[in-house]
Design goal:
CATH class of the domain at 115-197: Alpha Beta
CATH architecture of the domain at 115-197: Roll
Number of helices: 3
Shape: elongated
Strand order of the largest sheet: 6-7-8-9-10
Protein name: Cystatin domain-containing protein
CATH topology of the domain at 115-197: Nuclear Transport Factor 2, Chain: A
Biased composition (Basic and acidic residues): 16-28
InterPro entries: Cystatin_sf
Structural class: alpha+beta
Region (Disordered): 1-28
Amino acid sequence: MEQKLLKQESGSGLEQKSDGDLVESKPEQKAVEEDFVKYFSKFSKYDDSDFPYHVKSGNFEYKNEAYRLLEAQIQIYKEKSRNLSVYDAIARPPRSHLILMGGGVTPHVISYDDPILQGYSKLALDYYREKNNNQGPTFVFHGLVKCTHALINGRIFYITFTAKAEDDLSDTPALTTFQAEVCCARDKQPEIRECAIKI
Protein backbone atom coordinates (compact mmCIF):
# COMPACT_ATOMS: atom_id res chain seq x y z
CA MET A 1 0.00 0.00 0.00
CA GLU A 2 1.32 3.42 -0.96
CA GLN A 3 2.45 5.38 2.03
CA LYS A 4 0.58 8.66 2.66
CA LEU A 5 3.15 10.29 4.93
CA LEU A 6 3.61 13.98 4.13
CA LYS A 7 6.23 16.49 5.12
CA GLN A 8 6.16 20.29 4.81
CA GLU A 9 8.54 21.92 2.34
CA SER A 10 10.02 24.86 4.23
CA GLY A 11 8.52 28.20 3.13
CA SER A 12 7.08 26.75 -0.08
CA GLY A 13 3.42 26.25 0.85
CA LEU A 14 3.77 22.71 -0.55
CA GLU A 15 3.84 19.28 1.04
CA GLN A 16 5.82 16.29 -0.25
CA LYS A 17 4.51 12.72 -0.31
CA SER A 18 6.82 9.76 0.25
CA ASP A 19 6.92 9.08 -3.50
CA GLY A 20 8.34 12.54 -4.16
CA ASP A 21 5.21 14.17 -5.62
CA LEU A 22 4.33 17.67 -4.40
CA VAL A 23 0.82 18.70 -3.45
CA GLU A 24 -0.47 22.11 -2.36
CA SER A 25 -1.11 22.47 1.36
CA LYS A 26 -4.43 24.12 2.32
CA PRO A 27 -4.67 25.73 5.80
CA GLU A 28 -7.94 25.15 7.56
CA GLN A 29 -10.46 27.97 7.42
CA LYS A 30 -10.60 28.13 11.19
CA ALA A 31 -6.87 28.80 11.40
CA VAL A 32 -7.20 31.58 8.83
CA GLU A 33 -10.02 33.20 10.79
CA GLU A 34 -8.02 32.98 14.00
CA ASP A 35 -5.06 34.67 12.31
CA PHE A 36 -7.40 37.40 11.09
CA VAL A 37 -8.79 38.06 14.55
CA LYS A 38 -5.33 38.00 16.11
CA TYR A 39 -3.87 40.40 13.53
CA PHE A 40 -6.67 42.95 13.49
CA SER A 41 -7.68 42.90 17.15
CA LYS A 42 -4.72 45.14 17.92
CA PHE A 43 -6.26 47.89 15.78
CA SER A 44 -9.48 48.01 17.80
CA LYS A 45 -7.90 50.70 19.97
CA TYR A 46 -8.28 53.04 16.98
CA ASP A 47 -12.03 52.44 16.58
CA ASP A 48 -12.99 55.69 18.32
CA SER A 49 -9.95 57.75 17.32
CA ASP A 50 -10.51 61.12 15.62
CA PHE A 51 -7.62 60.34 13.27
CA PRO A 52 -8.48 58.24 10.19
CA TYR A 53 -6.81 54.82 10.35
CA HIS A 54 -6.70 52.36 7.47
CA VAL A 55 -4.76 49.09 7.25
CA LYS A 56 -4.92 46.52 4.47
CA SER A 57 -3.13 43.18 4.35
CA GLY A 58 -4.02 40.73 1.63
CA ASN A 59 -7.77 40.17 1.70
CA PHE A 60 -8.13 41.71 5.14
CA GLU A 61 -8.85 45.40 5.65
CA TYR A 62 -9.44 47.65 8.66
CA LYS A 63 -11.02 51.13 8.61
CA ASN A 64 -12.00 53.05 11.71
CA GLU A 65 -15.07 55.29 11.83
CA ALA A 66 -13.05 58.46 11.18
CA TYR A 67 -11.65 56.95 7.98
CA ARG A 68 -15.09 55.93 6.76
CA LEU A 69 -16.36 59.45 7.49
CA LEU A 70 -13.45 60.92 5.50
CA GLU A 71 -14.28 58.62 2.57
CA ALA A 72 -17.86 59.91 2.62
CA GLN A 73 -16.70 63.55 2.75
CA ILE A 74 -14.37 63.00 -0.20
CA GLN A 75 -17.19 61.47 -2.22
CA ILE A 76 -19.33 64.55 -1.57
CA TYR A 77 -16.38 66.79 -2.53
CA LYS A 78 -15.92 64.91 -5.82
CA GLU A 79 -19.60 65.24 -6.69
CA LYS A 80 -19.66 68.98 -5.93
CA SER A 81 -16.43 69.77 -7.78
CA ARG A 82 -16.94 67.51 -10.81
CA ASN A 83 -18.13 70.28 -13.17
CA LEU A 84 -16.30 73.24 -11.64
CA SER A 85 -13.58 75.12 -13.50
CA VAL A 86 -10.17 75.59 -11.91
CA TYR A 87 -11.17 79.19 -11.18
CA ASP A 88 -14.06 78.01 -9.01
CA ALA A 89 -12.34 75.13 -7.20
CA ILE A 90 -13.62 74.38 -3.71
CA ALA A 91 -11.71 73.31 -0.63
CA ARG A 92 -10.94 69.65 -0.06
CA PRO A 93 -12.02 68.01 3.20
CA PRO A 94 -9.42 68.19 6.00
CA ARG A 95 -6.95 65.27 5.87
CA SER A 96 -8.11 64.33 2.37
CA HIS A 97 -4.43 63.94 1.42
CA LEU A 98 -4.52 60.64 3.32
CA ILE A 99 -6.68 59.23 0.51
CA LEU A 100 -6.50 61.54 -2.51
CA MET A 101 -3.30 61.65 -4.52
CA GLY A 102 -1.79 65.00 -5.44
CA GLY A 103 -2.70 68.45 -4.23
CA GLY A 104 -5.12 69.45 -6.99
CA VAL A 105 -6.50 72.96 -7.29
CA THR A 106 -7.63 74.58 -4.06
CA PRO A 107 -8.81 78.04 -2.93
CA HIS A 108 -6.06 80.53 -2.16
CA VAL A 109 -6.57 82.80 0.84
CA ILE A 110 -6.29 86.41 -0.27
CA SER A 111 -6.82 89.87 1.09
CA TYR A 112 -8.38 92.39 -1.23
CA ASP A 113 -5.21 94.45 -1.31
CA ASP A 114 -2.84 91.55 -1.93
CA PRO A 115 0.02 93.27 -3.79
CA ILE A 116 1.37 90.11 -5.40
CA LEU A 117 -1.94 89.04 -6.94
CA GLN A 118 -2.65 92.63 -7.96
CA GLY A 119 0.66 92.69 -9.79
CA TYR A 120 -0.11 89.42 -11.55
CA SER A 121 -3.53 90.75 -12.56
CA LYS A 122 -2.00 93.86 -14.09
CA LEU A 123 0.50 91.73 -16.03
CA ALA A 124 -2.43 89.64 -17.24
CA LEU A 125 -4.20 92.75 -18.54
CA ASP A 126 -1.05 93.69 -20.48
CA TYR A 127 -1.05 90.17 -21.93
CA TYR A 128 -4.74 90.51 -22.86
CA ARG A 129 -4.14 93.84 -24.62
CA GLU A 130 -1.18 92.47 -26.61
CA LYS A 131 -3.08 89.31 -27.54
CA ASN A 132 -5.87 91.48 -28.97
CA ASN A 133 -3.43 93.76 -30.80
CA ASN A 134 -4.49 96.75 -28.70
CA GLN A 135 -7.98 96.60 -30.20
CA GLY A 136 -10.93 97.66 -28.07
CA PRO A 137 -10.81 99.52 -24.75
CA THR A 138 -7.75 99.55 -22.56
CA PHE A 139 -8.61 98.00 -19.22
CA VAL A 140 -7.05 98.91 -15.88
CA PHE A 141 -7.14 96.77 -12.77
CA HIS A 142 -9.92 97.48 -10.29
CA GLY A 143 -10.04 94.71 -7.64
CA LEU A 144 -9.50 91.07 -6.77
CA VAL A 145 -12.50 88.75 -6.62
CA LYS A 146 -11.00 85.39 -5.71
CA CYS A 147 -8.08 83.10 -6.42
CA THR A 148 -7.31 79.39 -6.52
CA HIS A 149 -3.94 77.73 -6.90
CA ALA A 150 -2.14 74.46 -7.61
CA LEU A 151 1.32 73.38 -6.48
CA ILE A 152 3.05 72.13 -9.64
CA ASN A 153 6.80 72.78 -9.88
CA GLY A 154 6.21 76.03 -8.09
CA ARG A 155 2.70 77.44 -8.07
CA ILE A 156 -0.03 78.17 -10.60
CA PHE A 157 -2.53 80.90 -9.72
CA TYR A 158 -6.02 81.09 -11.21
CA ILE A 159 -7.08 84.67 -10.51
CA THR A 160 -10.53 86.20 -10.93
CA PHE A 161 -10.48 90.01 -10.86
CA THR A 162 -12.35 93.05 -12.14
CA ALA A 163 -11.13 95.83 -14.41
CA LYS A 164 -12.59 99.02 -15.85
CA ALA A 165 -12.09 100.85 -19.09
CA GLU A 166 -9.25 103.36 -18.77
CA ASP A 167 -11.36 106.19 -20.19
CA ASP A 168 -14.26 105.56 -17.78
CA LEU A 169 -13.74 108.27 -15.16
CA SER A 170 -17.12 108.00 -13.45
CA ASP A 171 -17.52 107.29 -9.75
CA THR A 172 -19.29 104.02 -10.56
CA PRO A 173 -17.45 102.65 -13.59
CA ALA A 174 -18.74 99.61 -15.45
CA LEU A 175 -16.65 96.66 -14.33
CA THR A 176 -15.58 93.69 -16.44
CA THR A 177 -14.59 90.41 -14.82
CA PHE A 178 -11.41 88.72 -16.04
CA GLN A 179 -9.83 85.36 -15.33
CA ALA A 180 -6.09 84.77 -15.62
CA GLU A 181 -3.79 81.78 -15.25
CA VAL A 182 -0.35 82.72 -13.95
CA CYS A 183 2.49 80.21 -13.66
CA CYS A 184 5.13 80.98 -11.05
CA ALA A 185 7.80 78.34 -11.58
CA ARG A 186 10.80 78.21 -9.27
CA ASP A 187 13.57 80.65 -10.16
CA LYS A 188 11.63 82.04 -13.15
CA GLN A 189 9.63 85.15 -13.91
CA PRO A 190 5.83 84.84 -13.71
CA GLU A 191 4.31 83.57 -16.96
CA ILE A 192 0.81 84.62 -18.04
CA ARG A 193 -0.68 81.56 -19.72
CA GLU A 194 -4.20 82.86 -20.15
CA CYS A 195 -6.26 85.98 -19.64
CA ALA A 196 -9.81 86.38 -20.87
CA ILE A 197 -13.08 88.07 -20.01
CA LYS A 198 -15.20 85.74 -17.91
CA ILE A 199 -18.16 84.48 -19.88
